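Incident log, structure service

09:12 report received: a user says their structure output differs between two submissions of the same chain.
09:20 pulled the input from the user's history:
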Amino acid sequence: MSKTVLVTGATGYVAGWLVKKLVEEGHTVHAAVRNPENKKKTQHLDTMAENAKGSIKYFKSDLLEEGSYKEAMQGCEIVFHTASPFSTDVKNPQKDLIEPAEQGTANVLNSAKETSSVKRVVLTSSCAAIYTDAIDCQEAPNRMLTEDLWNTTASLDYQPYSYSKTLAEKKAWEIANSQDRWDLVTINPSLVMGPPLNPKATTSESFNILKQIGDGTFKMGAPKMGIGLVDVREVADAHYKAAFVEEAQGRYITSAHNTNMLEMAKTLLPKYGEQYPIPKSAIKKWVLILFGPLLNKLLSRNFIKKNVNIEWKADNSKIKKELGIKFRPMQETMEDSFQALIDAGIFKK
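09:34 re-ran on a clean worker, output below:
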């Protein structure tokens, strides 16, 4: 259990909790980051490693620089590839999303092919590699997403983030299947929420929906936009178990709750409803189609038609059965996330 492991994108939202778990369990973590000298980015990791059984060593690396992970990978049996851009608002999807996701994955996994110590690679993929819109669930067998499905409806022009995750995971399986020394396991989370270890991580894409729930954007009503939700702490735990449960194999949908934006908002009402303009009811779909693009340019009419008032459903039985993952209640995840935004001074009273 004192194995040396590599974590790419180690300062990230999910990666932070994973690194915490690894050092607490006594592992030496080779943390691959863009700039090891930037102490603002690594301070939260250094602080939690101070009293831990394990330790962290930093290595400079870049998703688009071929071979830049080789040094960090030396002596590692496990490679956690968590580094990938997560943004839905980009100027150039090809350059900002597709290339870092697909080429970065190829860069890391090709280095794993050349590193004799590597036994397993755990890739942070996404449910976005399985579906694009909630309406895709209706086309799925039993109207439910499973690990057997792949996203076939995203493109460079529509939902390019989902497209980037699909291409990246397909590239990973292609490289994994070209060799037989290490095996690949992928973690496919839905929308990730929960408290960040790094207070500055509240700027991540995951928190944009939460900000709109609390800042009055949807005080007239929240869209019943079908999505899945999972806590960041369970996503980190899933990565850990995917590495060290020997029987782990294939893809794992990592999603705790089949929900929607209104249901998520309602969990916050008991604790925060008096102080913040949290929506209590649903906004009508036709109103959203008229005004959604003005509220948020990502709420295109096409997106609204395919996601609002449509049930999102995924089967999480595989990860519960094979990795023993237990999911916490949605209210706990939502309250911890919302409190993190309050503590970071996001909302003006």
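09:41 both user submissions now match this output. Likely a transient worker issue. Closing.
09:42 reviewer note: The chain has one domain: 4-343. The first strand starts at residue 4 and ends at 8.
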